[in-house]
Amino acid sequence: MRAPLRLVDLPRGSRATVESLRADAGLQQRLEALGLRPGQAVQMLRRGWWAGPLHIRVGMTELMLRRRDAARVSLVA
Amino acid sequence: MSRVAVVGMPNTGKSTLFNRLTGSHAQIGNWPGLTVDLLQAELSLSGRTLQLIDLPGIYDLRGHTDDEAVVRRFLESTPVDLVLVVLNASQVDRQLRLALQVQQLGLPAVVLLNMGDEARRFGVSINTEALSAELGLPVLLGSAKYRMGLAALQAAVLRSLEGQAAGSAPQPVQRLEERLRAVDGELEATQAQLVATAVQLPKQWHDRWTRRLDAVLLHPLLGLPLFLLAMALMFQAIYAIGVPVQEWLGTLLERFGSGVLKPLLTPLPSFLQGFLLEGVYQGIGTVTAFLPVIALFFLAMGVVEDSGYLSRAAFLMDALMERLGLDGRSFVLSLMGFGCNVPAILGTRVMRDRSLRLLTMLVIPFSLCSARLNVFLFMAAVFFPPRQGGLVIFALYVISFLAAILTALLFRGRFSSNEPLVLELPPYRLPTLGQTLGRAWAEVRHFWFWSRRFIIFGVVAVWLLNNLPLGVEPASQLSLAGRIGSLLQPLLSPIGINAKLAVALLFGFIAKEIVLGGLAVIYSQVDPAALSRAIASDVSWIQAVSFMLFTLLYTPCLSTVAVIRSESKRLDFTLLSVAWSLLLAWLVSFLFFQTASRIS
Known about the structure:
The complex is a heterodimer of chains A (77) and B (600). Chain A has 77 residues and is α+β, with helices and mostly antiparallel strands. Chain A has one domain (7-76): Ferrous iron transport protein A (FeoA) (SH3 type barrels), CATH 2.30.30. Chain A is 17% helix and 36% strand. Chain A has a 5-stranded antiparallel β-sheet. Chain A starts with 14 loop residues before the first strand and ends with a strand. Chain B has 600 residues and is of the alpha/beta class. Chain B folds into 2 domains: 2-200, P-loop containing nucleotide triphosphate hydrolases (Rossmann fold), CATH 3.40.50.300; 226-417 and 438-599, no CATH class. Helices cover 64% and strands 8% of the residues of chain B. Chain B contains 26 helices and 10 strands. In chain B, strand 5, helix 3 and strand 6 (109-114) form a beta-alpha-beta unit. In chain B, helix 10 runs antiparallel to helix 22 (513-522) and helix 13 packs antiparallel against helix 14 (341-347). The A-B interface holds A 23, 25-27, 29-35, 37, 45-46, 48-53, 55, 57, 59-66, 68-69 and B 9, 59-60, 62-64, 90-91, 93-94, 97, 122, 124, 188, 201, 205, 210, 214, 218, 220-221, 223-224, 311, 314-316, 318-320, 322, 327-328, 352, 418, 420-427.
């Protein structure tokens, strides 16, 4: 069985839908406040150099977030 | 008087709105029970006096950051007549929840969908009437930046205030946490339903400009060099314009002092005459002459921030900062510290994790702030020809960065954190002239407000130390200053700091703005050119550079120490910050002075 797709693995330019968040309360709250919540479509705009942050779009908002935090967001294609 | 609290998420133009509504009369106010100062202003609308309070930008009334706690405590302790909720119109799809939370608390509110110009450009259309009907609150679309919809907003605020039952005094919010927890589960569904009824979102993103600019400015190879180039050009431009203005202003003030003030003061006893002219006037004058450079710095930083480029800097630098135990925000704050360390340290409030916040606070004081720059510009001009002087200043900037990196590396183990980093990258925006000038003006005023007490106190104290006991030759070995200087010699002569420079450093502890004014008093030279000659004949260039290095690295000013203390709420941490910067300053100056003296 394939491992579930995570936001951190999304290739540049691809789109997917948020399935669930598995973060602590603080991070979860922040992600949801910024629009990253189950059912929302996300697009990977770019991935920072030297394992740097990711640049994504969700809804009408563009965000940067670290790969470590993006690993907590699972997606469905 | 009616009290109106302005609440909104970060990046919604809340501060711009606040400034638009209140003009430039805002003041820093202390509120009981809050550890932070809030911006507040009074305005009168159709004969009614309103007090507007700008609360910190927050994402969630139930959030975990310090700012979110501040807003909660404010609402729980202060009765407000009205809450003005400011949302970014193009992001209503996620921001309405804040309005819903305010509504849940039963607070009378008016909702402004700000940045309406952007929403239209991006193809977001909002039916404010439907939204208003669903929410049961007045909802208006406008743009504070372009002054659109402000009159309607004022009218709505007045209507809402007048509609409130007379005689029922507002109460602070009771059981805030509990009431918010009750609706938390439905918040998303309610918001989604509101958006479905009243908002039309575009199928395709419409911001081609941001897309194209990001392709270049966030390019994996070009991004960072372009950013560094932009910063270098910015600093270059500030000095190219600021320094001539500063010299011109200095000459003007000097002429006014000798031509107008001196004849006026002749009837006074000579001690008092000297005190007023050489102490007070000269000290203030020296500082005033540097205001243009500071104003230009804030102007440029304001453009960078308002345009959206500053958050791109956080994106570009985060990979490096993460390895230093910091994050992209630390870098941006350090960069703001190049203007003034005090607001940069206050800015660390956006960080939730204490360790990360403390480490950032430990690093920021090494940012070469504009007050220190004044000293360096002057000293470099005294000891080096223009071209070399520029290199010296550049080298000091590099050392400032290196000191910050070294500090982070040394202390990241003690202050380790795994705070998540999630930041908004707003679309690029063209700052308007009025907005930029208004901000720069507010910053300069704030800077002047912070520093003038220290400056006046400091300059007067330097002058007194130099001229007491009565009848002593000013700044000689026998004066109080001379004695303190000699006392410190065992510690300071190994780094090339003589007794006179030692006194200047002593006062630089209060504020770097005093150093130059202090030097002018210590060398009793009114004219900048004469002061240059006096210093040049007293110390070697090696001593001068050692002095600059020490000035760069040791405690920036008493204000910085004070905010580190109030923000960290820890005395031991504050002492660590002061002790570490003194130690590093001494070591670097020692290394430089001893090596350079041996070689030459």
